[in-house]
């Protein structure tokens, strides 16, 4: 009787708490959002440490064969891994970014000429199609200037600068935190394993370890593979656009390479702004680029991508599209990139669960 009374009291208290939370959902939502914002440097730090851990592990395996001191191997491998990863970013920053800025400034300085050229192409096309009011396109530059002068545009720029400053702060603090993660990785993993071993039964503990190992392999292979794949696509795009004498080949290649990290929709997201830039400059070049990028993405999707990613995806194109749409809708660009490996993990876990149930039934 006493246990039943305790259960009833617990259920009533639980129901009142749920009702109170739903009645003040916006308040608790703001608290949760603020808490997540405060944790973002730790998220960025973990992301940096996770990426650095891959070259660090490879370097450590090599050093273990030549150096007997485990602690020294660990320190050297971590330092070399950071130098390797940030050396790549520094190389890109020193070589590529100035060229991108130069191309962008050149594009802006010649924008009037490009707009005039686009107007002439458009007007000629409208004449051929028999459209009478094609002269309306003459107002485009004035409309662009009027939009730039509006208050909403200034608020947009201010919001962008604020988000950029906050993101930069999170990455800088995250970099510092990543050093702590890397240099204390073994101790952190040991403590987490001990806590899990105490809190969980042996069966659930080993199940959790298997899931984490599988998730680590899927995430690692997918992210590293996608970065390598995008780098290759960016280089091939630069070579192709240079051969075809397409303007701003480096700027366009960087756009295509960066957006290629996003599965399925990445090639289209990169091609659309690039084609728009070329349409303003030279519509014929835009057509040649569209054909080239279509061929390049077919090569990537059927040859380069499968060779690099291997079996790390292992799901059909329909499920990839589904995971990218859902992930992007919930978490933006990050969700679009990470949606596929997360779906692969869920897909395999659910598949294993169904197979076990099917064996039990038989």
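^ structure tokens above, recovered residues below v
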């Amino acid at each position: 009787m006493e246990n039943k009374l305790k259960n009833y009291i617990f259920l009533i208290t639980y129901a009142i708490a749920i009702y109170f939370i739903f009645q003040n959902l916006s308040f608790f939502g703001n608290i949760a959002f603020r808490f997540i914002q405060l944790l973002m440097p730790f998220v960025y730090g973990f992301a940096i440490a996770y990426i650095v851990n891959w070259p660090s592990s490879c370097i450590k395996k090599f050093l273990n064969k030549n150096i007997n001191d485990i602690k020294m191997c660990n320190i050297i491998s971590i330092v070399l891994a950071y130098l390797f990863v940030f050396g790549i970013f520094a190389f890109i920053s020193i070589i590529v970014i100035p060229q991108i800025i130069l191309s962008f400034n050149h594009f802006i300085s010649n924008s009037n000429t490009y707009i005039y050229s686009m107007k002439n192409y458009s007007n000629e096309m409208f004449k051929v199609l028999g459209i009478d009011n094609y002269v309306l396109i003459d107002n485009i530059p004035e409309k662009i200037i009027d939009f730039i002068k509006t208050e909403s545009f200034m608020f947009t720029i201010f919001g962008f600068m604020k988000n950029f400053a906050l993101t930069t702060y999170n990455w800088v603090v995250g970099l510092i935190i990543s050093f702590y993660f890397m240099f204390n990785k073994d101790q952190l993993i040991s403590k987490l394993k001990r806590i899990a071993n105490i809190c969980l039964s042996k069966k659930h503990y080993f199940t959790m370890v298997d899931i984490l190992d599988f998730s680590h392999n899927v995430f690692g292979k997918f992210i590293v593979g996608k970065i390598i794949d995008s780098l290759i696509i960016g280089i091939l795009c630069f070579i192709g656009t240079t051969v075809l004498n397409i303007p701003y080949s480096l700027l366009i290649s960087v756009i295509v390479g960066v957006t290629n990290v996003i599965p399925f929709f990445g090639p289209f997201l990169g091609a659309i702004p690039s084609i728009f830039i070329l349409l303003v400059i030279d519509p014929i070049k835009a057509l040649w680029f569209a054909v080239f990028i279509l061929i390049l993405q077919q090569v990537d999707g059927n040859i380069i991508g499968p060779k690099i990613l291997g079996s790390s995806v292992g799901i059909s194109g329909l499920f990839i599209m589904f995971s990218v749409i859902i992930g992007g809708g919930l978490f933006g660009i990050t969700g679009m990139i990470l949606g596929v490996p997360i779906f692969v993990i869920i897909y395999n876990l659910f598949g294993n669960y169904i197979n076990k149930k099917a064996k039990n039934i038989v």
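The chain has a mean pLDDT of 76.
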